[in-house]
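Entry, Tuesday afternoon. Goal for today is a structural model of the target with flavin-adenine dinucleotide bound, before we commit to ordering more compound. Inputs were pasted exactly as handed over by J.K., no edits. I checked the ligand SMILES twice against the vendor sheet because last time a stereocentre got dropped in transcription.
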Amino acid sequence: MDKSKNHFNVILIGAGSAGLFAADRLSQTGLSVLVVDRGEEPSLRTDMNYGIGGAGTFSDGKLNLTHRIGGEPGSFGRTPAEVEKLICQVDDIFTENGVEGGYSGENGGEYHKLLRQASAAGVEFIFARQRHIGTDRLHVVTERFYRRLIEHGVHFRKNLKVDEIRHFDDHFELVCGNEKLTADAVIAAPGRAGAYWLREQAKRLNIQTIYGPIDVGIRVEFPAVIYHEIGQIMYDAKFRLYSKSYDDLVRTFCTNPNGFIVAEHFDDFVLVNGHARRDSKTDNTNFALLSRVVLTDPVEDTTKYGRDIARLATTIGGGKPIIQRLTDFLSGRRSTWDRISRSSIVPTLKDATPGDIAMAFPQRIATNLMEGLNVLNSIISGLVSNNTLLYAPEIKFYDTKYNVTPFMETSVRNLFVAGDASGHSRGIVYSAVTGMFAAEGVMKNLGKL
Ligand SMILES: Cc1cc2nc3c(=O)[nH]c(=O)nc-3n(C[C@H](O)[C@H](O)[C@H](O)COP(=O)(O)OP(=O)(O)OC[C@H]3O[C@@H](n4cnc5c(N)ncnc54)[C@H](O)[C@@H]3O)c2cc1C
């Protein structure tokens, strides 16, 4: 084939943490590397999901430095030790690019106390070393990382969306509007926002995918003071339990001490999320409380199920997230601004509609969340009170999972997947790790390892 200026040894689709860490691994190997992203470069970005740095750029960058959070090594044929080794390298690269400060999770005696308390309540407390970059700092780190990759010879094309992946005998063709790029190998890492698109490509290329679970739930916001001691032990403590009525997994996720709740707007629904800044603090702490949904034959499409719930919640909220006092949720009545004003905390997301979350969620999910809140109250004392607010919907789509080798290669030779769109990661660190394994796979196939 014609090796034109539009041909590269490897093209990475998506410049989120998977794409950037894969590019880092591939730089200086002698291979020509192009990263294509449909969004802007870090300093010019306005979009939350699209652009160099990916979805993580506007997050507060809580780095979970353990194989136990954000993925399962066995799902892509790796051992915990292999994943831990790369996690250390990811942490080092973040440090080289300007992440400062120490780690939470080094407070021995208090940790044991919390572990005991959680066990007594029938809750699993997942302990991890963590670092917190801060929403105000992560884009600076990303910008540095981006510049370093350019210095190391990585090419970038921004504001360019890949519409189609075509496979030929010895190469791939990526169709981007009127333009065509070709490569010997492709790493597709388009993140959660691109997972649906990737699934369509996989279908056309006859790559087998399996439906995974999704997590549906709420953001819980409460006075920061009641989480303070736990936050000293682990900044973003992870609690998991099984609901009494249905034996479904309910877990906390993404805790933001002194943080903010934000709305995430998608084409036909709105979701909530949370973040924390290092330079600006509120008096509130928030975390997501999520109920796991697994569907089995004949209805397995968890994505559609999650999107239907999101649309219904958006309808009930009149196009905005729903806000409700926890006590109103537990007693089955709708909240009003008047009732919310009786709370001692000021909501950090005001562009929301007071309502009844139970109207938007299937009864099983609402019950799981109610039970979860009651159990967590024995660990986070004071959680169940008039001073706690709930926002919905928060939905995590990690649905489509690819069957991959330990190098993240799909059934199509030289086509690799990485990051959240692969179904094998849920967070910045694991995305980076899967990106690095994919890069090593490319190096191996192209004779550089
Ligand atoms: C508000 C918020 C807070 C978060 N907080 C944390 C946290 O504290 N800690 C944590 O570990 N995780 C956090 N996350 C999750 C974390 O950001 C993601 O897990 C991580 O960014 C996934 O990385 P990725 O590389 O797989 O995909 P992404 O970061 O989503 O990057 C994918 C990239 O692909 C590009 N793309 C998509 N489709 C195409 C296409 N067709 N053509 C070209 N480009 C395309 C997109 O523009 C995007 O830049 C948070 C997420 C959000 C939204």
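The first strand starts at residue 7 and ends at 13.
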